[in-house]
Each structure stands twice: as C-alpha cells, then as structure tokens.
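for the record, two folds in this file. i put them one after another cuz i was lazy. first one right below, seq on top, structure tokens after. the second one comes after a little note so u can tell where it starts
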Amino acid sequence: MNIIPTSLKEVLIIEPSVFKDPRGFFMETFQENRYRESGIDRHFVQDNLSFSVRGTLRGLHYQIRHPQAKLVQAVSGEIFDVAVDIRPGSPTFGKWTGVILSDQNHRQLFIPEGFAHGFCVLSKTAHFLYKCSDFYAADDEGGILWFDPEIGIQWPVEHPSFLKRPLSPPCPMRSGSASCGEERKMNILIVGSKGQLGWELMRQGADFTLLGLDLPELDITRPESIAECAKDFRPDLLINAAAYTNVDKSESDTQTAFAVNKDGAANLADFCKTAKIPLIHISTDFVFDGKKTSPYLESDPVSPLGVYGKSKAEGEEEVRNRRKEHIIVRTAWLYGVHGHNFVKTMIRLGQEREKLGVVADQHGCPTCAADLAEALLRIAQQIGSGKNVSWGTYHYCGKGITSWHGFTEKIIETARQYFPMRTKQVNAITTDQYPTPAQRPAYSALDCTRIQANFGVETKDWKESLKKTIAQMADSDFGGTAN
C-alpha cells in the first residue's frame, strides 16, 4: 500500500496493493490495523454508496458538531474528488485539492475532520463508496457553494447537475453568524439547467433552494419524467429554461421542435397545475414577424415566420390555457458565458479570419443570460413573498437596439482586449446575401416597460453587459470559455 500526500498534507491518496491475474483482480479496500500503521488512525462507523450520472456534482459538505473523516473511492466509473480545508487558523485554510479516482487506478482518498468534501462524475455513470468516522446527522450538515470564487475550484465539468438545498450550520469559511446554507424562501425547480440561462439561474440562486434538471435525467416531452424527477423536491415554483433553439434545424426537424417547445411546455404547465405552483416560462422575440418599426408590446399579435417561432408561440398558448398562475417572459438575442451562442461564434471566427460579413438589416436587442437570470429571480422573490402578482406575458431584453452587424463590431472590439483577434474589418451585408433555411424577423426589439412597472426589473445596457460577459469568458477562474 502506497500513501501519497496531496497539496493539503493531511489529505492523503492511498494506492492499495492490487493483485491481478487472468481472472481479474483482488484488493483490500480497508484493513484497520494496516491503515493505522500508515497514519490513518480512524474507526469508521458508517459506509455509504452513491450512484450518479455524468456531470453530477455532490457537495461540498461537512458536519460541525459531529465532524467526519472519510475514506472514499470510485467503485465504478471515474470521479473528480475535492477536499477544502475549513479549519480556522490552519495555514491552508480555504485551500483545496482535487484527485481523480476511478475503477482503473483503484485510488482512495482520505479526508480528515475539518475538511469539506465533494465530487463530480466524469464518466457516463459512477458508483462512489465512502467510509465515515461518525454517523450522518442531517441537522448538523453544512455546505459551501461549488463555484465559490474565494476558493476557486477548477471543476472539470462545464455544466454540473446538482441539488441545492438549505443547510443549517454556520460555515467556517465565512465571518460573522451567517450560515453557508441559510434558509431559502422557496424551492425552485429549474428545467433546462445545463443551458446558458439555466446555468446562470443555478449560479445566481443562492437565496433559494434549487433543483436543476436537464437531459438525460429529465425529458419534458414525457409527462411521467417530470413527475418522477420532481417527486421528492416539492417545488414552490418552476422556471422553464428548456427549449429547442436551433432556428434553422427546426425547419427540417419540425417534430422535435414542437415536441419540446409546445408539448413540453404543455406538460410542464400540467405538472404545475397538479402541484398547485406557478410557472415561469421563457419565450422568444421570434413569435413576431418583424414588420413593426417600433419595439413590440406584449399585446401585439404574434405572427411567427418559421417553425421555431411557431412552436414557441404555440407553447405560450399551452401555458396560458393550462396554468392560470404563469409568467411568460419573451427575450431576444440571448448570449452568455456558458453554452453556444452568437458572441462565442464571433469571437472564434474573429480569431480565424481577417474579414467578416454580417447581416446589417435585422435589428434587435442583445440580452445577457446573467441579466435575464437576475430578472427572473427577482420575479421569483416577489412570487415567494406572497404579494399580489400580475400574471401574464412580459418582455425582457438588453437596453438598446442594434443590428447583427453592429453587435459583431462591438464583440470584436471588446474581445480584442482578451483574445488574439485577426479580424480587421466587419462588412455589412444584407439578409439576401446570407440565405438561411429559416426566415428571421427584420425587426424584433422588445418593449420592456411592463416588466419594469410590475416587478421593478430594470433592463441593462447591452454594450456594458457584453463587456462584462467577454471579460468573464476570458477569466478561467470564473469558469468562462469563448469556445
């Protein structure tokens, strides 16, 4: 047996002796005397086994009054295991270490008392076994946010799936009496949590208890999938950020577009009606035909040009007809730090080409996913406060109107501060010069007066939000990427 110290010297990697032959292998996963002789002098009283799918993130957890030492290993699959030193006064207080554990390397990790622990799954599935030196105590469990910027853990997954829940003990990582997992006002189910908007909702939702669900765990085209995934969570509100958003592919994949955007919305509305909870549903500027020359109002008639817009418009109607307590929020030209979007595409092309040609006769309002998430969570707070809510349809987008050409010029200009951009010229072209399978509205700016009046939600200047987002894309500590 080989013992390897990590960057946190008390956290140890154990490489057990593995005896292999043509039939397979044999190894001791624990032998108290042998481990004691190696410096791991603990009496373990509880074994736990968890099963998780790819992208699952569990933790970071600890117990205060009944601290636990843990001996952990991946019985099947591969996981990235993390320990964080939360001992006040420790020279490595607030530092973290991460180790790959798998059924191939047979490694174990010993995490002593005084450390928070968590892991994420890298393989398709994984069975994770851990021995504990004290019994699990639900009322003694605390937690640290997985994306806490003061710790800066470099998780090797882009869109983790996890359950956020209230945890009671005070967190040693914070000063004062505040709790790392203070009481949440309401349980919110985030559908589409792996997308650019869903990810932002999960990132910003520390004031709530959040459950994020997405494919493959949740399939909104199957009603039974929704009920099964949410049965133990008991949400107070559902936010639907899931959608089939490939505008051009929708023209040839009509069945899937309507299954997700119309039938999926209907299924979620039915679930909310049965559960007696409100629904916030995200829609799009593509429900309009673009023939106006002033920003669209919520009361303007819809007249979508393509399959995507039609499927979203019919999804809106399903929500209205099936759940009275609903908020539909239409947005436009969405982009963010995570997921695929126009901003990332232009930054990539800007590093590859000296000239770009971009459509200049389509106008709209670029919207930052972080800004939209902030607005939605503010609405959620008001719903949870018990105040009278004006249910119905609203618009939210970035402040200011531009063309795709103008948007691109600003993207290239801003990205030049962070990335090796080759583009020297962005040429304005017409829609006719760039034919696409789906017809797009020539003008789809949205009037956001109503959401400001009813919820106090202010829109943000799209240029300022774009600067912030591109800076975050360039910041590896934030977890951003321009790819």
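(here's the note) second protein begins now
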Amino acid sequence: MKTIKLTLLLFILPIALVTCKERVSSVSNTVQKQTSDVDATAQPIKTVQIKLLNGYFFKNTHNVDANPTFFIFKGEEVFNDYLGMARTMNNQIDKPDFDNNTVLAIVCEPAQVKTEISVIKAEKADENNINIYYEVKTGESLSYSMQPLLVFSFAKEENLKTVNFISDGKTVKTFTLNRRAAGAPTSLEELKDKYTGTFAGTLPCADCSGIETKLTLKKDNTYVLETVYKGKGNKKPYIKKGKWTSSEDLAFIELDYDKKESIYYSLIDGNTLEKLDNHAQPISSNLNYRLIREK
C-alpha cells in the first residue's frame, strides 16, 4: 500500500509542477504583452531647449495686467514696442530670431524687493503642447524700484498649439497659438466679403451692468465702434473711429493696429466676433464676449 501511495505521489507531483510552470509562463507573457502595449502607445516627454535673451527692459509705456504677466511676441515690431534695449558698457544684447524661434517674456510689477524670474525647465508634453515651468524668487529689500523681466526663446514647432506657463504645479497662463476658429475666413477676399458689416452685443463690465457695443467693419479697413456703459447715466454712445487689419493667419482682427493700444476680436464665423484680451488671447471667463451680426 505504501508503495502504491508513493507511486501516485511521484506521478502527481510532476503534473503539478508542469501546470504551475505553464501558469507562471502564461502570466509572464501577459505582463510582457501589456508592458509592450503601454510602451508602444506612450509618448516620452521631450526637453525643450531654452535660450535666454539678455539686455532688455520692460517699457513703462505699458502696464502689467497681472503679477506676473506673460508675453509671446509675434514679430520684431511688437517686441520693440514693449521692450527696450538696456545699453551699457558691459552688458550683452541678444537679438531674437523671429523667423526660427518663438520669443517669450515673463515680467513682474515694479517693486523695491530683489526679485529673480527663472525658467526651471521646458517640456514638450506632446506634439501640440509645451509646458514652461518657472519660478519667481524674492529676496532682500532695495532702496530703489526694479521691474523683473525674463526674455527667452525656443525653436519653433510646426504643430505647436498651446504654451502653458506653470508654477508650483499650477497652470498660471495658457497661450493658444493656433487661434483659428473652424469658421474663420480662408482669404482676405472672403474676410472682406463675409466678415464686414455691423456686429452688436452687450459685453461684460467690471463696474456697470454691461457695455452695449456696436462695431461696424468697413471694406476699406476702417471701423466705427459705438459703446454705452449701462447704468452710468449717460445713454449717449461713445463713438470711436479708426483702422483695422487682420492677423496673418486670418484668425482675428485688430482695431487701431497703428496705435499703441489695440483691440482684438476673433473671427468665429461670418456672423460672430468674439472679443480677445490685450494679447489677442481668449479671455478666461464664462461670460459672453461675443458680438452678433445685425440683420
């Protein structure tokens, strides 16, 4: 009887070992397949090389909207409008290359405190988005006022859509580079044919019940802007006249492009304009900033 039991034990043990081995092999193959699948779809984060541009100051002809305020400069003209060259005997002035690089700046409000702005790193999360991680450090008090400024650039990316400025793990500002709406015009002829006319609506107001706005765009690139601040007592519209032009990609129009302070409207479609901020970026708000074509 003992011999029979021993024989059965010896017979069953190899079967158990083979079954266990097969299960381990099956689990191992499954894990390898899953890992392979993840590796095949995951996109590695790429480091973006930042080039600092030294030798500039922020002109006092412009105000800082927030602390800090961020800029992406589209060309040399607007760059020179906001920034001046700090010419001294010892400093180096690095000229930006607008043809091949995206040029940016971070600026803080003037203060009598030693303040340093720095970019910790820049990463390309995917082909459409670049994240700029920055920090602002303050130190000892100063006997004079200084306005911290950091100007830098990175190589242009063909498919880049957004640039995110991130500090302490929070996205502080997002710039949308590809701002064309689906219904934006595809040519200047279409712009003047379908987007000129009169658009009206009530825009948000910080200290009144709304700004009644009527904007007439003429085909000769002139405009008439009528505004009434509701609840302010004076019901007579304030009338402003000037010139308008379009962005290179026909994404928005710019009123008073020939002056220091411009007004921007996004071309949503032939019947809709949407007001943008002072940097031609979408306004981060749930309020309505759209003007609708008058029938």
